[in-house]
Specification:
Length: 114
């Protein structure tokens, strides 16, 4: 289950960028072709944040569908997996989207005025 290691590195990055702040929600973009299972990440998130400064934060995952462009027939098509083959039969294909694994934003809990 490599999702735990990936989730831990996401949590580390968030902790690194938000020192001393309380995090309410972490928004992630996960491509369908990234090899990461969003449900497994959600499951790991509680584990990875447990005992850290962002414990209790929620994880919001936006899934990005796979899209590719075929240079053979010059058209875009949906890519359900990493088999780079156009319906026209050409394998001269470039992935346009679906490999994302990135933090799109982090919601911080507003700090009360001292
Ligand atoms: Zn094609």
């Amino acid at each position: 289950m490599h999702e735990l290691a990936i989730t831990e590195s996401v949590v580390d990055m968030v902790l690194d960028r938000t020192p001393g702040r309380q995090v309410a929600c972490v928004h992630l973009k996960v491509g369908r072709l990234s090899g990461v299972v969003p449900d497994a990440m959600r499951f790991c998130f509680d584990l990875a944040t447990s005992g850290t400064a962002i414990e209790g934060a929620t994880l919001d995952i936006v899934e990005i569908p796979g899209r590719a462009h075929c240079r053979g027939c010059d058209s875009d098509f949906d890519l359900p997996d990493l088999i780079l083959l156009c319906p026209c039969g050409s394998a001269d294909v470039g992935v346009l989207s679906g490999r994302e694994l990135e933090i799109s934003s982090v919601d911080l809990v507003a700090q009360p005025c001292a």
